[in-house]
């Protein structure tokens, strides 16, 4: 019998008291304070007119964040991959051809989801740390004639951002639908859904939107609506009288059936899942904060923090990872110097300085750290705090960075930019 539990009652543990970490990994990141407040607001019933009005507001807000005139912009409950899965599983009928250009872990994820949906998948790959030339994608489109091209915008696993403005029109010319995973870029890197002719896009909250993981904003255009409504099906228990299903194969997932989700988010308000009330409040507030700052101002803030962080890292004698022309603005890959133990450095930053930076996986495992400057975290004080702590931990591990050089270089970038 435990001495502090003499009656041997079931253990209920202590009150939650998570350490106040500074989250500078590839996501999740620290949440905007007003988002946390929004999440503590009272529950509403899912068909309460106030709640359905909030749903409409979320649609209006995310149209702006995605820079689209699409009618359909709403939330899928679940982390970012719920958005990936909803779009791919609804678009792909068994046997459809899907082209996946893979430049990191999340391309492999899309390939897997497409395969699970029964697609005939062709993947093309570049080395991690690079992106695709539009001509390479075009050659594959010509040879394979896919129905769908699935492409990641910014792959946090490699810290690279794939330019999309030429690939969208190329897919359109070849009659393929382009689906983009913008989980890691939305809100922090320019993303032009309409101007770049992206047919369907999904994202998450836990990166540049600075919200909690658990809600996936998505948008798609009428070309996508046309394809998926051929597969329209409604659950027996809520099927309106006289309903005639589409003549295409039923979407394999009920939870991620875009047709049923459209009926729930649209004027029919046909019951599907119970919307995750608190996550909707969070997503609404994330968009309000991001749009309140202004998308361009937010992109500039991310660019500046990345420049300052990178100048600081290089001044410390560290090497940056990947093709410099195609780095994301919000995650930086840093080559772990020879002889420095990657994981103990990360752990010391966490335990002694309460700063989290990211490890990496696949071919980059043990080769790079990933440092995020996203959303609420993306500001001068945090860049400086991270560089300062990293310098101290590196010195303990035998890597002699010039004292203060990292912080000074980052400060110079902020000073030059007028802060
Ligand atoms: C580009 C990209 N896609 C998808 C995901 C998966 O997100 P989640 O873990 O929220 O499902 C991530 C997460 O890091 C990501 O960076």
Describe the structure concisely for a colleague.
The chain is an alpha/beta fold and 419 residues long. Helix content is 38%, strand content 14%. The protein is built from 13 helices and 14 strands.
Keyphrases for this structure?
3-stranded antiparallel sheet, binds pyridoxal-5'-phosphate, 419 residues, alpha/beta, globular, 14% strand, 7-stranded mixed sheet, single chain
What's the structural blueprint in terms of helices and strands?
Elements: E1 22-23, H1 33-38, H2 49-66, E2 72-77, H3 80-91, E3 97-102, H4 105-116, E4 120-125, H5 134-144, E5 148-152, E6 154-155, E7 160-161, H6 167-173, E8 177-181, E9 200-202, E10 215-220, H7 222-229, H8 258-265, H9 277-293, H10 295-315, E11 319-320, E12 331-335, H11 342-353, E13 355-356, E14 368-372, H12 380-396, H13 405-416
Parallel strand pairs: 1-13, 3-4, 3-5, 5-8, 8-9
Antiparallel strand pairs: 2-10, 6-7, 9-10, 11-12, 12-14
This protein binds pyridoxal-5'-phosphate.
